Amino acid sequence: MSTENQHHLCFRDAMACLSAAVNIVTTDGPAGRCGITATAVCSVTDTPPTLIICINRNSAMNPVFQQNGCLCINVLNHQQEPMARHFAGMTGSSMEERFSWDIWNVGLLGQPLLRDTLASLEGVIEQVQTIGTHHTDRSA
To answer: Where do the Flavin reductase like domain residues begin and end (predicted)?
Structure first.
């Protein structure tokens, strides 16, 4: 194994040890409704309120988020681990099934807000940038 590959694997292993909030990031609009489980969410500033969300650029959900232009970050509580598994694609439930459960509200921007979360943060995607294997979506 090359030194570069060893460094890559060490970096991935180290990143897997980082503690992070678990979120379900949702969108709804002309391109459809979808959601993903994400831990790569970071607050940037509160003036104006701005977050960065990182989504693998190979994800089938990327074009849906970008075309809809809005999203909601639903910060999960510890009892919502099953929802994180559903939206990570670990249970085989379809996207349609995930949104058919009576656990959703609609936010001011028309985005799906999961009930009983620690927080639900709706925003408009203001900028998308490609960094390595991911797109970073800046939302305010």
So the answer is: 15-139
Q: Residue 57: pLDDT above 70?
A: yes
Residue 27: φ, ψ to 5°: -150, 155
CATH number (domain holding residue 86): 2.30.110.10
Residue 13 placed within a domain: no
6 domain-assigned: no
How many helices and strands (H and E) does the chain possess? 4, 9
The answer to whether the beta carbons of residues 87 and 95 sit under 8 Å apart is no
Q: Which residues of 49-79 are buried (b: 16+ CB within 10 A; e: fewer)?
A: ebbebbbeeeeebbebbbebbbbbbbbbeee
Give yes or no for residue 55 having a pLDDT over 70. Answer: yes
User: Given the DSSP bridges, would you call strands 49-56 and 41-46 parallel, antiparallel or unpaired?
Assistant: antiparallel
Residue 12 lies in a domain: no
CA 6, chain centre distance (Å): 29
Averaged pLDDT for residues 22-35 = 98
Structure tokens belonging to residue 55 = 């989504």
Tokens read off for 57: 């650029």
